[in-house]
Amino acid sequence: GQNIDQPTEMTATEGAIVQINCTYQTSGFNGLFWYQQHAGEAPTFLSYNVLDGLEEKGRFSSFLSRSKGYSYLLLKELQMKDSASYLCAVRSSGGSYIPTFGRGTSLIVHP
Amino acid sequence: DSGVTQTPKHLITATGQRVTLRCSPRSGDLSVYWYQQSLDQGLQFLIQYYNGEERAKGNILERFSAQQFPDLHSELNLSSLELGDSALYFCASSVEERIGDIQYFGAGTRLSVL
Questions:
Q1: What DSSP letter does each residue of A45-67 carry, written as one string?
Q2: Which of A48, B21, B29, B65 satisfies CB 3.0 to 4.6 Å to B25 for a cystine?
Q3: Are A94 and A80 contacting, i.e. CB atoms less than 8 angstroms apart?
Q4: Contact across the interface for A44 and B58, Cβ inside 8 Å
């Protein structure tokens, strides 16, 4: 099976930088996803990492270390609209292409 | 807009009833996935269809069933509804089963069982 851990909630200030961590344990690894989900809305794809290192996409960056079973999502120049839940999802090897989602980290950005 | 269409947006019904949720995938996507999300649970995978065939099953109850039609739209049928079935139901679609395949989610159907 898989185990995915994320902090339940984080708070940050508008304009600041925040790092949301995700640790996972899985039998085999075939990629890690980050999604953003505003309350009551659909999860929106942010990033995909399958190799170690940092992927940068505008204000958002995602990092992966496969040996440590660790990823983080870095959000820069925080805006109020970034207040949302951030879901980490891991796809394991072994035939299934279904990613397992973590419980999500609720980020609250305040002025 | 992800390109995945779900109807209806909201559904209110009573215990014991049966409902059908509908999903149209993005143009060109062959895989459809159904998820349930309730307040005390994360996003729970229910079932996947690929080009009309059932491909994978998750934590789907026997009271629930789904199918994917030749035009690739999918329906999730929920029967003998219970209060605990109240949740957001999401459909996602992707192109094909391969490493790097990205799931895109519809806006969801909010089901309230009273």
A1: EEEEE-SSEEEEETTEEEEEETT
A2: B29
A3: no
A4: no
pLDDT tens by residue, A49-93: 999 999 999 999 999 999 999 999 999 999 999 999 999 999 987
DSSP label of B84: G
Q: Could you tell me which residues are beta bridge partners of residue B31?
A: B50, B94
CB contact under 8 A, B110 and A100: no
Angle at alpha carbon of residue A4, lines to A63 and B74, rounded to 5°: 100
Looking at the complex, report in whole angstroms how far the Cα of residue A101 sits from the nearest Cα belonging to chain B: 6
Contact B88 A40 (CB under 8 A): yes
The per-residue pLDDT for range B34-49, each reduced to its tens digit, is: 999 998 778 999 999 9
Q: A56 near B105, Cβ under 8 Å? A: no
Among candidates B39, B41, B50, which has minimal Cα distance to B103?
B50
